[in-house]
Amino acid sequence: MKNIKIIGGALPNIPWQDKPENCDSPIWRHTENPIIGWNPTPKTARIFNSAVLPYGDGFVGVFRADHKRITPQLHLGFSKDGLHWDIEDEEIHWLDTDGKPHESDYCYDPRLVKIEDIYYITWCTCMGGPTIGLGMTMDFKTFTRLENSFLPCNRNGVLFPRKINGMYYMLSRPSDNGHTPFGDIYLSQSADLTFWGRHRKVMSTGGGWWQSMKIGAGSAPIETDRGWLLFYHGVVNTCNGYVYSCGAALLDIENPSKVLYRSDDYLITPEEPYETTGFVPNVCFPCAALTDAATGRIALYYGAADTYVAVAYTQIDELFGWLLNHSQLIDGDSDEGR
Ligand code: BMA
After folding, report:
1. Rounded Cα distance, 151 and 43, in Å
2. Residue 331 — very low, low, confident or very high, per pLDDT cuts 50/70/90?
3. Tens digits of per-residue pLDDT, 125-156?
4. Burial (CB count within 10 angstroms: exposed 0-12, middle 13-18, buried 19+), residue 162
5. Which of 75, 90, 96, 107, CA to CA, is 20 to 30 A from 43?
6. Neighbours of 180 (CB within 10 A)
7. By alpha-carbon position, which residue is closest to atom 1 of ligand 1?
């Protein structure tokens, strides 16, 4: 029962490197990491925690860019190969549904999905406290801001890439106004992307210390014939501050509040200099994944040290085999309680 298939299109031009011979991990880093470094455009100091998707004959990205005044905004980028990016110096400007400009003091940690020919962006925005902003675009030229999805304080809003039984689904992580020292992953449903309800708890902190303080959804869930594959981040508080690692979970396909498997060990933890050293040391923060259903290849994009964009590769059979042997459900997972 180890077989698993990604449900989705072929992506022959997915960024890819074969697993190095001496690697004993189910995921391996791109050898030219980081793919985006310091001061990538005149206005921006650091780009990290960003989202990408296939677009045209290449790729599009919505990037978290901290400006040189250290305010984060979302910037657009395009790439032929998913590794070398042309990033716009001007941030994305939003219009509301009446066509009026709708700017935010800050925007960070975007995720990007395509649902029925519309691209949706979720990110952390401000409304008297951090909460989940939601917007859409058809062409990456005009961007329409929809209603914020939740009350503050909330972060890490991640939409599923298709409706499930007619409903949109979003993961999120209720938080506080600062560097939240707690946090579990919740799931909410909406018929219209405006009103969200049927809230359920999906995953709790606990288990290995790497995910003991808070967790948050990472890339948009990847559909497989065994469930939704979710990369997520887990945080441990050390005497030198928070350390962000990356893990994986498989959620039930019809009811994604049910956790089938979740990693006991981390998949990626800060090891490389670009992960351990930067504006905020010791951060690996996954926000996007490209998949090729034909080969089972996955390219995971993660922010490193709040400074860089990095890429890691895995293959769905290898990852699932690892997950089967490294799964530990935690008390409070799949909590249907109301
Ligand atoms: C979180 C978010 C992320 C950031 C992380 C580590 O609270 O702000 O954008 O990568 O902290 O600083």
Report:
1. 31
2. confident
3. 999 999 999 999 999 999 999 999 999 999 99
4. middle
5. 96
6. 18
7. 179
